[in-house]
Structures
1.
Amino acid sequence: MLDYNQITAGKLIIFNGEPWEVLSSHVFRKQQRKPVNATKLRNLITGRMTENSFHQSEKVEEAEVEKQNIKFIYTQKNEYWFHEDEDPSKRFALTEDQIGIGYKFLKKDSIVEAMIFDGKIVGIKMPIKMELKVVEAPPAIKGNTAQGGNKVVKVETGASVNAPLFINEGDTIIINTENGEYVSRV
């Protein structure tokens, strides 16, 4: 069990009978009242977001989520097919909602971590940074670049990313999978 002030960002909790991930938390006190922990939560099953305030007297149960490595094989009609890392015969499909924003950066044979709650996969955890090859990059255009210029490039998975002007077709870049932003060139 977690006290109200132990519910911090990154923790997985049971709230209303379902597993939730704590995205942010802020403990504060309003004037003469008792302290509260204002949190932003994301449901691991449905992906729904909500905000909730936990009061000093409240306790919540920490969710027991197992983690297992899985390997991405291919995509077909908005279904993303995976198999267990050790056993290729155990195949299964996940939807974009279950994967989250990271589906744009999945490339063949990449290994990700599946989050399992009550024997069911509720989501996947992508590596925070991934190396992807640029397949399309428009030429750099001269102009007002005092604040740094950007252009939209297409990577091998089909995703579009804002990148600096010096990135060319064939370059390998590192992308943050949590927000889809360019990090650096390899």
Note: The first helix runs from residue 96 to 99.
2.
Amino acid sequence: MATTNRIMIVGVGGQGTLLASRILGNAVIRQGYDVKVSEVHGMSQRGGSVVTYVKYGEKVHSPLIDKGEADLILAFELLEAYRALPWLKKGGRLIVNDQKINPMPVITGAAQYPESIREKLGASVNLTAVDALSLAKEAGNIKAVNVVLIGVMAKQTAIPYEEWVETIKTTVPPKFLDVNLKAFELGYRLKSDK
């Protein structure tokens, strides 16, 4: 494989973006790829933006992704997806959790949450919107949104299902394993209607 794959994972603090990037990174390492990961934190403990870059291929020199380069953005929240849109390359894919989490300026009344974000995203990119929060609840923990979205993304890769499952087993702490395996399964088996 001569090409490099560029994936951005975006969300807010506490949504598990870092675990998602570890699962993705470990899955592609198992396939023999060189992987570089870079984490960019906002005020993650207070619900601020968290961005992770994951690049993999035969040989990767830097984890950073410039605007217009991302092949895929995996977004855990609608506004974060919208903010990350400039990094998506033309023809790239966006997988988004169809959920709104109000940032601090909205909570304090200093700003309003933008209207019709999902419609704006769908009009401009190859969009897969998922109610990952409901699927995480079904799996047994609302914090499993991250692994639901990994499941949705995994379905669109060439990495076999069993490899993803083994990666989750070796990456997720044992006490959270059952919930995360169920969350992955629900995301992976989800029928995509865009």
Note: The mean pLDDT is 91.
